[in-house]
TrEMBL record, chain A:
PANTHER family: D,D-DIPEPTIDE TRANSPORT SYSTEM PERMEASE PROTEIN DDPC-RELATED, OLIGOPEPTIDE TRANSPORT SYSTEM PERMEASE PROTEIN APPC. Belongs to the binding-protein-dependent transport system permease family. InterPro entries: BP-dependent_transpt_permease, MetI-like, MetI-like_sf. It comes from Rhizobium loti (Mesorhizobium loti). GO terms for biological process: peptide transport; protein transport; transmembrane transport. This is Peptide/nickel transport system permease protein. It is found in: Cell membrane.
TrEMBL record, chain B:
Belongs to the ABC transporter superfamily. This is Peptide/nickel transport system ATP-binding protein. Its main location: membrane. It is found in: Cell inner membrane. Keywords: ATP-binding, Cell membrane, Membrane, Nucleotide-binding, Transport. It comes from Rhizobium loti (Mesorhizobium loti). Residues 12-257, 279-527 form the ABC transporter domain. SMART domains: AAA. One of its GO terms (molecular function) is ATP hydrolysis activity. CDD domains: ABC_NikE_OppD_transporters. It is a peripheral membrane protein.
Length: 283, 550
């Protein structure tokens, strides 16, 4: 279809950004800028080992101090943001696209396909999220790519369920009945009438899901199943610093704060997008 | 109906009541009095401030509202009372019943407990005594087997029975005043008639004073002795019901009376029996699977062997209460339901067998306007987009030309061009319904199905929409299938009617004839339930309307 209703809907609403949204955007774009500019800003090579200077507290030379092998924590936090931001996008987009499509089709057409997917949903949610991702990564082997693959295999379910629930209520509304009565094709009804009205909560969820993915990335890094050393990743950094937290709190604290601020940014963005979508129908 | 006796101090004296939300005055300088034992009606459209007035009397307004003036109940100013004193008065001295009884009953508690609760609270009686009295009250409001029913939960009650239970709860403490806010709006007409009968009887027996709020002048005229007509937060007229209806002084009251369904005949377009058969419904049955129990639920038959015929250029009405299958029929004709038996034929062609090109051609010939003005329009499209969409999707014109045609269609349904870029939420219900009409007419259909298109609208808006419908029908020589629960509307609009009950046609014939000499007992009950103004001709009833709930 020629039209892109989702974009057409969001474009005019950019003018109505709330203060929380503004904070969220500042945080997120701030991190994006820091990630892009990391090689320029970072005072040291993030992987350069300096045995003479290990576990030194924050100082003018090392803003956030150094870790157990003398690497500059500040530079590592900056470089890690590249991996973590990428992880958020790569961990959210594939399940979002796959889940939304499946939810849209199975909710609208129902029938056998819906039943099959419903059973797959049930099967997937029967296992705790982390356990399942852990199992899949365990089979595929550690590494970022496999981690994202595992996230997609498990994560699409939430999007499909959310989308399906939205579609189930929308398909009963009279404007969908009217669209059928007017002889619109299923593609036109789905793309132009169902999707724009159903997508709001899904987008809002996707943004908060980014937080979950980031935390999962950190946890898996912590367990040694995500980003592999020596690559800087906030989770890995916290995991590494944990043993030294008594003597050198800065190794864990700064990556932790970075993770929290990025998570907060995504969460606020999700809130704001949800609000804007709700108002989209009235403007 | 007891006439107010002069000289007695009024039970309720509302003076210069003004209620404002922020800077907006929803109620302006409203004054009226209510004598003991009197039934006062307050009539007005949605947004006229009638409900706000009564909520102000009960002090049930939200924090943002500011009420000024005096509301004196037996000389005590309610607006000056503290929260504690108020709680003692609410429920004990003033009872209230609402439009939607389902949302005011707690689904997890038994009916008997809920009816007893206000008495236990206000009269200081024990639980056992309260339940005993609740059973007695349920009997008083006409509920069969009250002991058994007191142990039921709200979901086991029908809409009419829930409203009876609400009335029982409201009158338990023998209040001096009962405020009924649209008590019958959510109910079917025959149930409405019984509830009004019950209220009348309560008033006659116990001398309970009532304020009845309604958008329906017919209902008010039926049971009230005096009426207050409100518009835009102001009282435009008040007086004894006969004076107001027979000698309305204010232009708005005249409009309200004029708009009453059945007051005006829209004139038949062409006489029946002329024109050839356009749509035939033959022995149509529709079955829905009901209840997905372990043993496979039994199915529910929504339509059961329905035969019906519509001729070209005719206006055919379908009347029935909720659940009678009339909407199922409409949805079957436009192929939103699959019939389980029988056939629908348009010009002799089986509609169910259509596919591809033939189906597209059918879609252009048969269109439908839906019931809910807001729900029937996509909230994210402007109204011009919504009306233009069928034109370009069917390849009748490119998108730019379609927009121009949409403007012409919007003009045809009397919507000002300044509204074209609005979304449904920024329009009134009547305006949305006009958009729905324009969209249905965009494909220039031959047969238009209108399913309860005015049931969500005020009477004056309803009259305007009906007038528009008749004009469009003339201009475009449409064949019209008009579906409604309101016999008065149908008979003023249609040449022939079919009366539906429980999925079957119980009576059919020329509209005026069915209305004046109904043959089937159900049609007779339906005709008898018409709340009409006293001046319209009354039809002798061959069968009294039962006051007991069924």
């Amino acid at each position: 279809m020629a039209e892109s209703p989702v974009l057409a809907q969001t474009a005019p609403s950019i003018r109505r950004i709330t203060p929380t949204m503004l904070v969220a955007l500042v945080v997120l774009f701030g991190w994006l800028a820091l990630a892009l500019a990391a090689p320029v800003i970072a005072p040291c090579d993030p992987d350069a080992i300096d045995i003479m200077n290990m576990l030194s507290p924050p100082s003018a030379a090392h803003l956030f101090g150094t870790d157990q092998v003398g690497r500059d924590v500040f530079s590592r936090v900056l470089f890690a943001s590249r991996i973590d931001l990428l992880l958020c996008v790569a961990g959210v987009l594939p399940p979002l696209l796959i889940g939304t499509t499946i939810g849209l089709l199975s909710g609208y057409f129902r029938g056998v396909v819906d039943n099959v997917f419903m059973r797959i949903y049930d099967l997937t949610v029967a296992f705790p999220f982390f356990v399942l991702v852990l199992a899949i990564v365990g089979v595929l082997g550690p590494g970022l790519l496999n981690f994202i693959l595992a996230l997609t295999l498990v994560g699409w379910v939430s999007y499909a369920r959310l989308m399906r629930a939205q579609v189930l209520t929308i398909r009963e509304s009279e404007y969908i009945q009217a669209a059928k009565c007017l002889g619109y094709s299923p593609a036109a009804i789905l793309g132009h009438h169902v999707l724009p009205n159903a997508i709001g909560p899904v987008i809002a969820y996707a943004v908060s899901d980014a937080v979950l993915v980031m935390l999962a990335g950190a946890s898996f890094g912590f367990l040694g199943l995500g980003a592999q050393p020596p690559a800087a990743e906030w989770g890995v950094m916290i995991a590494d610093g944990q043993a030294f937290v008594q003597q050198a709190w800065w190794i864990c604290l700064f990556p932790g704060l970075a993770a929290i601020s990025l998570g907060l940014g995504f969460a606020l963005l999700g809130d704001g997008l949800g609000q804007i979508h709700r108002r989209g129908a009235t403007a | 109906m007891s006439r107010p006796e002069t000289g007695k101090p009024p039970l309720l004296d509302v003076k210069d009541l003004t209620v404002s939300f922020g800077g907006f005055a929803a109620v302006k300088n409203v004054s009226f009095t209510l004598q003991p034992g009197e039934i006062l009606g307050i009539v007005g459209e949605s947004g006229s401030g009638k409900s706000v007035t009564c909520r102000a009397v009960m002090r049930l307004l939200t924090g943002a509202a500011r009420a000024q003036g005096t509301v004196a109940l037996d000389g005590q100013d309610l607006l000056a009372l503290g929260e504690e004193e108020l709680c003692a008065i609410r429920g004990r001295d003033i009872g209230m019943i609402f439009q939607n009884p389902a949302s005011h009953l707690n689904p997890l508690r038994r009916i008997g407990q809920q009816v007893a609760a206000p008495m236990i609270r206000h009269l200081g009686i024990g639980k056992r005594e309260g339940l005993l009295r609740a059973v007695k009250l349920l009997e008083d409001v006409g509920i069969h087997e009250p002991e058994k029913r007191a142990r039921s939960y709200p979901h086991e009650f029908s809409g009419g029975m829930k409203q009876r239970a609400m009335i029982a709860a409201a009158i338990g403490c023998q209040p001096k005043l009962l405020i009924a806010d649209e008590p019958t709006t959510a109910l079917d007409v025959t149930v409405q008639a019984r509830i009004l009968e019950l209220l009348k009887e309560l008033n006659r027996k116990t001398g309970l004073a009532m304020i009845l709020i309604s958008h329906d002048l017919g209902v008010v005229a039926d049971i009230c002795s005096r009426v207050v007509v409100m518009r835009n937060g102001e009282v435009v007229e008040q007086g004894p019901i006969d004076d107001v209806i027979n000698r309305p002084r204010h232009a708005y009251t005249r409009l309200l009376i004029e708009s009453q369904p059945g007051r005006k005949s829209y004139g038949s377009v062409g006489s029946p029996d002329r024109g050839k058969s356009l749509l035939r419904v033959e022995n149509l049955s529709v079955t829905f699977p009901a209840g997905q129990g372990l043993l496979g639920g039994n199915s529910f038959r929504a339509l059961d062997g329905v035969d019906l015929e519509i001729n070209t250029g005719e206006t055919v009405g379908i009347v029935g209460e909720s659940g009678s299958g009339k909407s199922t029929l409409a949805r079957s004709i436009i192929r939103l339901n699959t019939p389980s038996g029988g056939a629908i034929r348009l010009d002799g062609q089986d509609v169910g067998a259509l596919a591809g090109e033939a189906l597209t051609a059918f879609r252009r010939r048969v269109q439908m306007v839906f019931q809910n003005p807001y729900d029937s329009l996509n909230p994210r499209l402007t109204i011009a987009e919504a009306v233009a969409e069928p034109i370009w999707r069917h390849g009748i014109a490119d998108r730019k030309t379609a927009r121009e045609e949409a403007d012409a269609l919007l003009e045809m349904v009397e919507l000002p061009g300044s509204l074209r870029d609005r979304k449904p939420q920024q329009l009134s219900g009547g305006q949305c319904q006009r958009v729905g009409l324009a969209r249905a007419l965009a494909l220039k259909p031959q047969l238009l199905i209108a399913d309860e298109i005015t049931s969500a609208l005020d009477v004056t808006t309803q009259a305007q929409i009906l007038e528009l419908l008749v004009r469009l029908q003339r201009q475009r020589s449409l064949t019209l299938l008009y579906i409604s629960h309101d016999l008065a509307v149908v008979s003023s609009l249609c040449q022939r009617v079919y009366v539906f009950k429980a999925g079957r046609i119980v009576e059919q014939g020329v509209a005026q004839q069915v209305l004046s000499t109904p043959r089937d007992p159900y049609t007779q009950a339906l005709v008898g339930s018409l709340a009409r103004l006293p001046t319209t001709q009354t039809i002798p009833l061959s069968q009294g309307v039962a006051t007991h709930a069924t």
